[in-house]
Write a structure and sequence with these properties.
alpha+beta, D-amino Acid Aminotransferase, Chain A, domain 1, 5-stranded antiparallel beta sheet, 4-stranded antiparallel beta sheet, 9 helices, 28% helix, globular, ATP-grasp, ATP binding, metal ion binding, ribosomal S6-glutamic acid ligase activity
């Protein structure tokens, strides 16, 4: 059984981070154990036993087996969901096995996170995914948040849009992928929203959404926080096509400037306090700086991407993450 103290990386297929991390960790002499969620049951597995007053958890993988007590740190890059396609099953049986696998692995990870430093404990990730929790926490630390409606009530949505005449935008509850009738994949992103009649808003009953004050922006900031290290990237979409000006994820890189900037000290302190209250060691935060001079908090993604920022600006976010995995910082304390 292996006894070196590796860092654990749980991710999904085709994650570009893996190769970069493997090279960097090898250069440092830091063992790295990578587990692809789609290879569960094929290349790796998790089992635990209890007895003699203790619980033992073993990771089995291509290079042998490993006692989880010897892990140095862990970073869950992708939420653990999986199918049972490898078992040659379809329909109800495949769905059943997929659910059993996800419950088992996520249960083990939650137990493990109380014994091994995790860059974001699984339960902290789940809590931080809530837009309602995010906005309340942002308000509690003094951040400015755009006026927002989230829900399925046509009446309340109509009341929301009637408060003033400010422009509005529409967002999905979560930017999940949608498989189209032709077999392609689409993602609903932020779009400008024209006020609707009460009858037109009745469709909310079947699919809730987010309506939000649209900020006439000067620029946007993508702030990546790793422990106490803060990396702020200014994203200027003023010369990009119109969809990208509304939401930079309608990518128009050729006309979208990226540059590393220093955050206002007050905003920086507020964001670190925000992360502490959510008990997050890693987060990708989206801010907008409005034409009115205010800085608005939009959201945090505890599993957010960062590599494109490194590619465009050379900011060392990956290095900061590997630093943390090699020498994990203690859990946040508000005491």
């Amino acid at each position: 059984m292996q006894t070196d103290r590796p860092a654990l990386l749980i991710t999904g297929p085709l994650d570009p981070v893996v190769e970069e991390f493997e090279v960097a960790c090898e250069e440092r002499g830091l063992p790295l154990l990578v587990l692809d969620r789609e290879k569960y049951g094929i290349d790796w597995g998790l089992s635990w036993t209890s007895g003699g007053g203790r619980i033992e958890c073993i990771v089995e993988h291509g290079r042998g087996s490993f006692d989880s007590r010897h892990l140095r740190s862990a970073f869950v890059r992708r939420e653990f969901v999986t199918s049972a396609a490898d078992a040659g099953l379809i329909g109800g049986e495949a769905e059943y096995i997929g659910v059993q696998r996800a419950i088992h692995v996520n249960s083990v990870l939650r137990w493990l996170s109380s014994r091994v430093p995790f860059m974001n404990e699984p339960l902290a990730n789940i809590r931080a995914m809530s837009k309602m929790v995010q906005q309340q926490t942002a308000l509690d630390v003094g951040l400015t948040v755009p006026r927002t409606f989230v829900g399925d009530s046509a009446t309340l949505a109509a009341d929301f849009q009637a408060v003033d005449s400010c422009p509005l935008c529409k967002k999905p509850i979560e930017a999940t992928r949608l498989r189209t009738e032709t077999g392609g994949v689409a993602v609903h992103l932020t779009k400008r929203f024209e006020r609707r009649t009460l009858d037109e808003l009745q469709s909310l009953k079947s699919c809730p959404c987010v309506l939000q004050q649209f900020i006439e922006k000067r620029d946007e900031l993508r702030v990546t926080i790793v422990g106490q290290r803060v990396f702020a990237c200014r994203i200027d979409t003023s010369s990009a096509h119109l969809d990208a000006q509304v939401d930079w994820r309608h990518y128009d890189w050729a006309n979208t400037a990226h540059e590393i900037v220093e955050l206002d000290e007050t905003v920086r302190a507020q964001l670190l306090e925000f992360m502490a209250r959510l008990e997050l060691s890693y987060g990708a935060i989206d801010l907008v700086r409005g034409q009115d001079g205010a800085t608005y908090f939009l959201e945090v993604n505890p599993l957010g991407q960062w590599l494109w920022i490194e590619d465009l600006t050379d900011v060392p976010i990956s290095e900061a993450i590997i630093d943390w995995m090699e020498d994990p910082e203690p859990a946040y304390s508000l005491g």
